[in-house]
Amino acid sequence: MLKAYSALFFIWCYSLEKQDWERLINNLIREGVLRTPKVIKAMRSVPRTNFLTKDMQSYSAADTPLPVGFGQTISAPHSLAFWLG
Amino acid sequence: MVSIMNEALQLEVGHKVLEVGAGSGWHAATIAELIAPSEAPRSEWGHVYTVEIIQGLAEFARKNIMKAGYGDRVTIICSDGSLGYPEKAPYDRILVTAAAPEVPKPLFEQLKPCGILLIPVGSPHLFQSLIKITKQANGKIREENLGGVAFVPLTGQYGHKF
Predict the structure, then answer these.
(1) Best interface-test mutation with A: which of B2, B10, B20, B24 has the largest number of A CBs within 10 A?
(2) How far apart are CA A82 and CA A32, in angstroms?
(3) Which among A51, A80, A83 is the nearest to B64, CB-wise?
(4) B 70-99 residues with CB below 8 A of A?
(5) Which of A32, A49, A54, B64 is spaced 20 to 30 Å from B23 by Cα?
(6) b/e map of A41-69 (b: 16 or more CB within 10 Å)?
(7) Residue B157 lies inside a defined structural domain of this protein
(8) Model pLDDT for residues B141-157, shown as the tens digit of each residue
(9) B97 neighbourhood in chain A, CB within 8 Å
(10) Average of per-residue pLDDT across B84-88
């Protein structure tokens, strides 16, 4: 029973993360940072959460750089959007 | 400003891209989605070569790229990216995700004619200017300043010395 509940909890967390990423992409479109349809599609398909350490994954959809260990950082989503156009 | 933004990297399907500084691999995976989209025929796919100087980070990036399903379009190399990656040169696009003291000569040399190089240039730990260099067909260089950015310092032979 507990197993089923924890599985459901993880699915729920995952869908929340997906919603957050979608919301962030929509914000970047509204702000005019993301403009090119193919770039929007690419950024939608590759959520940042899969490139973070576990302790940082809940901040994935925050539009700021985040630490990835070794004294290095991952870019803020608006920053990658700016580079890709 | 907006029109400049739109012109930044201008990635197209089929492009061969060099990234200096793989980090955790997110840029490379997103770029792969643009130059080698899953729905395009494999024969038209481009490729991303991404160089990371920190071994632990290169391993983390490789794991992330594989898990995200881009292992067939992205190659992670653990070496000094300030020297570029001459083995697969020349490149249509080169991007540097760390702040350099100046444009490393090998990177410019590894750029194709009509290629674009995007690199933050300036002091480490402060702000830098994002410089876009276009190698024009007639061999001339066009340089544009796309504005202020803040990146971790580029290390290696052509990087900042500490």
Answers:
(1) B24
(2) 10
(3) A51
(4) 95, 97
(5) A32
(6) ebbebbbbbbbbeeebbeebbeeebbebe
(7) no
(8) 999 999 999 899 999 99
(9) 75
(10) 98
Nearest to B55 by CA among B18, B80, B86: B80
**Residue B156, domain member (yes or no):** no
Assess whether A75 carries a catalytic annotation.
Answer: yes
A37 touches B at CB < 8 Å: no
Q: Is residue B7 part of a domain?
A: yes
What CATH number corresponds to the domain at position B10?
Answer: 3.40.50.150
> Do the domain assignments include residue B126?
yes
Q: Which domain holds residue B14?
A: 2-149
pLDDT, tens only, B40-59 = 999 999 999 999 999 999 99
What type of residue is B82?
S
Q: What is the CATH number of the domain that holds A57?
A: 3.40.50.150
Give the range of the structural domain holding residue A56, as residue numbers without chain letter.
Answer: 2-84
ipTM: 0.89
CB contact under 8 A, B33 and A33: no
Buried b (16+ CB within 10 A) or exposed e, B79-118: ebbbbbbeeebbbbbbbbbbbbbebbebbbebbeeebbbb
Q: Determine the residue type at A2.
A: L
Contact call for A79 and B54, based on CB within 8 A: no
Number of domains in chain A: 1
**B68–A80 C-beta distance less than 8 A:** no
Q: Do B24 and A41 touch (CB under 8 A)?
A: no
Mean pLDDT of the residues in chain A: 88
Nearest to A32 among B2, B54, B97 (CB): B2
Domain total for chain B?
1
